[in-house]
Amino acid sequence: MSVLGGYPVGPSAWAVERFGRHAGAVAAAVPVQLAEAHAKAHAAHLAAGLKKRSPYGVALAGLVREHLAETARELGEAVRDVRGYEYAVINDHALFPFRYADRPRPLDRARLPANASPTRQRLFRAHGPQPPETLFDIDEDLLTEEYLGLHEAFEELGASTRLVCVFFTADAEHGIHAIHWGDAHLEPDRTFTWPYREQLPVAPAQME
Fold first, then answer.
1. pLDDT tens-digit series, residues 178-207
2. Do the Cβ atoms of 7 and 24 come closer than 8 Å?
3. For residue 95, what is the enclosing H or E element?
């Protein structure tokens, strides 16, 4: 089902800079696509009949990516496969969804899990915003093969493609709590700094 439509207050200048003429449609679609992904993940969670939350979390992660990819296709934009995962790429900006908590929590508490895959880390290092210039150059001894690898762009995503992060909190019982998007830089301690961020409205819960 198409979820493209007008954005009631108009997209921000930041969104227009990233998504061009599609900015309003993308800003309107993201909350709806997250709500629909939650509805399907909740149904899968109930069908599994398990008390643990894992069926919901795993299903939600995949469904959110699929639904954002659907938005890209509806807009006539690209969907790129990176290590078996599809990412929506709109106007050379890839949407990276990440549920950073299963309960309402401030965005500054977001942290990449310690067991996050090298692919996730590389997406942030190579396609995210670059850190502010520091007073000191990195010691050449620290420029290991692993370090350089994490800063190598994914050709399948597009070397010039930049990351737009869609961070949200959600749980099976209450759905999506809050949605933030913007430019997130991954710090060495796995926290994030945001050169720019804004909050999107949460769409009404979808019935499955």
1. 999 999 999 999 999 999 999 999 998 765
2. yes
3. strand 93-101
As a whole number of Å, the end-to-end CA separation of the chain is: 13
Q: 197: buried, middle or exposed (CB in 10 Å: 19+, 13-18, 0-12)?
A: middle
The rounded distance, in Å, linking the Cα atoms of 134 and 154 is 25
Rounded CA-CA distance 192/15 in Å is 20
Task: State the pLDDT at residue 132.
Answer: 56
Take residue 60 and report the two structure tokens written for it.
């939600």
Please give the residue that has the higher pLDDT: either 174 or 132: 174
Q: Could you read off the pLDDT of 108-142 as tens digits, one per residue? A: 999 999 999 999 999 999 999 976 554 344 455 55
In a 3-state reduction of DSSP, which class is residue 63?
helix
Question: What is the C-alpha to C-alpha distance for residues 152 and 103, in angstroms, rounded to an integer?
Answer: 34
CA separation for the pair 168, 38 (Å, rounded): 12
- Where do the H-state alpha helices sit in 49-117? 54-74
- CA 77, CA 51: separation in Å to the nearest integer? 39
Q: Coil, strand or helix: which one is 197? A: strand
Task: Order across the sheet with 192-200: list the strands.
Answer: 78-82, 85-90, 93-101, 162-171, 175-186, 192-200
For residue 93, the model assigns a pLDDT of 98
Q: What is the pLDDT of residue 52?
A: 63
**Confidence category of residue 8, pLDDT binned at 50, 70, 90:** low
Q: CA distances (Å), 139 to each of 105, 129, 136, in order?
A: 37, 21, 9
DSSP-assigned beta bridge partners for residue 90: 93
